[in-house]
Every structure is written in C-alpha cells, then in structure tokens.
Design goal:
- The structure holds 2 protein chains of 2 kinds.
- In chain A, α1 packs antiparallel against α6 and α3 runs antiparallel to α6.
- Chain A starts with a strand and ends with a helix.
- In chain A, 75% of the residues lie in helices and 5% in strands.
- In chain A, β1 (3-8) and β2 form a beta hairpin.
- Chain A is built from 6 helices and 2 strands; from the N terminus they run ββαααααα.
- Chain B is mainly alpha-helical.
- Helix content of chain B is 85%, strand content 0%.
- In chain B, 48% of the residues are buried.
- The chains are: A mainly alpha, B mainly alpha.
- Chain A binds chain B through residues 82, 135, 138-139, 141-142, 145-146, 149-150, 153-154, 157-158, 161-162, 164-166, 168-169, 172-173, 175-177, 179-180, and chain B through 154, 157-158, 161-162, 164-167, 171, 174-175, 177-179, 181-182, 185-186, 189, 204-205, 208, 211-212, 215-216, 219, 223, 226-227, 230-231.
Chain lengths: 256, 231
C-alpha cells in the first residue's frame, strides 16, 4: 500500500491506495496463491511426456493470457484518451501497461525455462508466439519509455499513439513471424484439444482465476497511485496559482 | 470529377513540404556527407564481423542490407524531426495553415526519397563487397520502394512523437526498431528471392510489406495532426 500525505484546506491527512474491498481482494489472492502452489506441486499429476515441466503451465498460461488482457486494456485506454480525453482511461492505460510488461516478462521467462526440457532449448526463433510476444514486450517497453519522459498531457498523447501503433502492428508482426518460418513449435491450445488430465485442467483454470484476481488487485492499487500523483500535480499547480493571486492582491492593497 | 479542391490542395502542400525538406538536405548535404558513409561503414563492419567469409556473406546479404537500412532510417528520421524542432519550425508550419496530413505525407516522402538513394548505393555496396548477384531486378526494386514507404510512414509518425523531447535520440530507436520488425523480416525474405539465395516467393512477401506500409501511413496521417498540435 502506498500512502501519500496531502494537504487540504490547511489540514494534514493521509490518503492510501487501499480500501476494504482491496484488502479482502488481496487476502483472497494470497489464499488463492497458496492453494495454487499446493495444487500445482502436490495435487496435479505429472505429464506422461513433459514430466514435471508441465507444472510450469500453471504460471505460464495465466501470465500469457493476462499479458494480452493488459495490453488490450492499454490500447482501449489509449483510444479513449485520444477520443474523449478521459483521464480515468489514461491512468488505466498506464497502469495496465506497467502490469502487462511484468506479466509479459514472466511469460517469456517461464516459457524459456519450460522450453529447455521440452524443446531442448531456452529459445527457438521458429516459434511464432514466442517471437511475437518478445516483440510485443519490446514495443510496450517503448511505451513505458515514453511515459517516463514526463507526466503532462502531451506525454499522455504521445504514449496513447505508441499504444495504438503497438496494438495495430501486432497482427502484422505475428503474421510476418508465422510466414518467416511457416511453422510453430508451440503446442496447440491445451484447453481445447482435450489432452489435459482433469486435475491439470482444473489447476490451470484455477491459476487463471488467481492471476486474474491479482491483476485486478494490482490494477486498482496502481490506478489509485496514478490518480493520487495526478491530484498532487494538479494540487501543486492550484496552490502556486493561489499563491500568485494572493501576492497580487497584497501588492494591490499595499499600493492603494 | 474524382478530385476535389481540398484534395488537390493537400497533395500540393505535401509536395511543398517534401521539396522543402529535400532542399534543406541538398543544401546541408547531411545525407551524402554523413548518412551514406555511415551506411558504407556498417557494410564493411559486417564484413569484418563475419570474418570476410564470402559464402556466409552471400547467404546473409539480404539481412545485412536491411539491418543497415534500418540503422540509416533511424538517422534519416532523426534528421527529418530535427528540421522541424529547431527555431520553432513546427509552430510555423501549423500557422501556415497546412493540413497536418499534408505535412506528414510531405515529410514521409522526403525521408523515403533519401532512403531510396542510400539503398541504391547499398545495392552497389553488397554487389561489390559481398559478391551478391541480382537474379530478379523488378522484385528487388519493388521491395525497396514498398518497404521504404512503410519505414518512412512509421518513422515519420514516431519522429513527430518524440519531437521536442530531450532524450529523443535514444527513445526513437527504442520505439522505431520493434515496429519495423515485420519490414526487416518481409524485405529480407523478398530480397532472398531477388538474389536467388533462398527459394521463397518474394512477391508474396511484398503483400505483407504493402499491408504494413498502408496501415502505418493511414495511422500516421490520422495521428500526425494530434501530435503536431498537442506535443
């Protein structure tokens, strides 16, 4: 939880990013994570072919899914900023991009670890989804670079255009990589091909729910940090304007 | 009557902006005195890096050519952006009443012309230094034109995006190079076919390059005004 001291009407109070809802949500995520670890390591059976490496999908698949959820949220937020000038969506886009980059890094990291025993290599250029995800990661790192250049409206506009460029170009990146090797090592969707054991499937879906709740919890906190930062910035400007006005009034009164 | 008065004005203004940028380049000779030597240097360094191994160089010619073009495009876009950021030239362009889409198209065309000139020289470079033999000239030329349109379209938009930012020299490549990844892949494959080094359908790759170019040029024409006025 981040706490920010604010001054309102001469009174000092502490504003946090937590609420009763996020406290309970955080607790559910914590309990869910413990349950996920237990399910993944002690309940779900090992795979006939992949052996224990299959347990990586309980992190890898939810992280990959939420990476795309986060970046689609960033794209929607970018459009809403450019279209409606919605500060709410602008902060949401930024929050989703930051969390999405972390999930994307986790996806690439767990994918590489999983690839070593399964494909006998940490990285394979022939895999379309892997290479596309890496380029998406680099594009969104660029988005965060633009965000770090300032905190004004111009920066929001720049970042929104980068977010749009990234999302619009993503299908072309995917298609170009697909044609490049015309093959993929990545296994087809395990959820739909019916090859997963019941407990493995349950654990993966459970992982998706826990990661989804964590994403929601992190989004709420990151959004509130962004909102408070903005309030502080706008408040500083208002205070400075009020101080200048007071100086002008003092000057007028002393001269009359 | 297909073209209306505003459309004619738009293309006329775009032509004026393109000629302005090209004239500035012609007078400063930056492209010829700095960018072309840089491109040649990169080709030579690739030769050193690959141990001047002729079979390896012949096999990798397409990729090395387009990586060099991407490096050069970064310089060309930086240069195109700096023209507008010095002495408040961006504001002057806005005050001149020129449509932002015209400014975008004009600047993209100027970047594309410069890149095509450098690519012409680079083709000569890979023939001489890497022993490349061109099997399909029409495919090679078409690839250069279509890929360059995409590079200039995306580059000009991202150049406007970082204009006025202190760290634009470092931020631009971070943004531009991942976006241009499909161009590198597509143009390299099409060149492989044109050079006869790999049996692929180069003309099919041109379709992907054209799609990339069209999407980025349309996006650029729509977003350029927002960036020009608000950043």
């Amino acid at each position: 939880m981040t706490e920010t001291p604010t001054v309102a009407q001469g009174e000092t109070r502490t504003v946090g990013t937590a609420s009763r809802t996020t406290w309970w949500l955080g607790l559910v995520v914590l309990v869910g994570t413990v349950a996920l670890v237990l399910l993944a390591f002690f309940v779900a059976p090992e795979d006939d072919e992949q052996r224990d490496a299959v347990r990586m999908i309980f992190i890898h698949v939810p992280a990959a899914f939420l990476t795309y959820v986060a970046f689609v949220t960033t794209a929607i937020g970018s459009i809403m900023w450019l279209w409606k000038r919605s500060v709410w969506w602008d902060i949401t886009a930024y929050a989703a991009a930051e969390i999405g980059v972390i999930f994307c890094a986790l996806t690439l990291f767990t994918g590489s670890i999983w690839g070593r025993p399964t494909w006998n290599t940490y990285w394979d250029w022939g895999d379309v989804r892997l290479v596309t995800t890496l380029i998406l990661f680099l594009l969104m790192v660029g988005y965060l670079s633009v965000r770090s250049m300032g905190d004004d409206e111009a920066t929001s506009t720049r970042a929104a255009v980068v977010g749009l460029i990234a999302m619009i170009n993503l299908p072309i990146v995917n298609r170009s990589v697909e044609w490049w090797f015309d093959r993929t090592l990545h296994q087809k969707s395990s959820l739909t091909d019916g090859n997963l054991e019941d407990m493995t499937l349950f654990t993966m879906v459970f992982g998706l729910v826990v990661f989804g709740l964590f994403f929601g919890w992190a989004m709420i906190h990151r959004f509130r940090v962004g909102w408070l930062e903005r309030e502080l910035r706008v408040g500083d400007l208002d205070d400075a304007l009020a101080a200048r006005r007071a100086e002008a009034i003092d000057h007028q009164e002393s001269s009359t | 009557m297909w073209s209306s008065e505003p459309e004619v004005a738009m293309w006329r203004d775009a032509r004026l902006v393109a000629l302005k940028d090209l004239q500035i380049e012609w007078r400063s000779r930056t492209t010829f005195s700095q960018v072309v030597p840089f491109a040649g240097l990169v080709l030579v360094l690739f030769g050193f890096a690959l141990d001047a191994n002729r079979p390896v160089l012949e096999r990798a010619t397409s990729g090395l050519f387009w990586v060099t073009v991407l490096f050069v495009s970064n310089l060309a876009v930086q240069r195109s952006t700096s023209i507008e950021t010095t002495d408040g030239a961006r504001r002057a362009l806005l005050l001149a009443g020129i449509e932002p889409a015209s400014v975008y198209v004009g600047k993209a065309v100027a970047v594309a012309v410069q890149l095509l000139l450098v690519e012409m020289l680079l083709v000569g470079g890979v023939i001489v230094l890497y022993g490349a033999e061109i099997q399909d000239w029409p495919l090679l030329i078409a690839t250069c034109v279509v890929a360059t349109a995409g590079i200039a379209g995306a580059g000009t938009l991202l150049g406007a995006l970082v204009a006025g930012v202190r760290a634009r020299e470092t931020v631009l490549p971070v943004l531009l190079l991942p976006v241009l990844a499909p161009v590198l892949i597509g143009a390299t494959r099409a060149f492989d076919d044109a050079l006869g080094s790999v049996a692929v359908d180069g003309w099919a790759w041109l379709g992907l390059l054209a799609g990339f170019g069209a999407i980025n040029v349309v996006l650029g024409a729509l977003a350029y005004g927002v960036l020009l006025e608000e950043t």
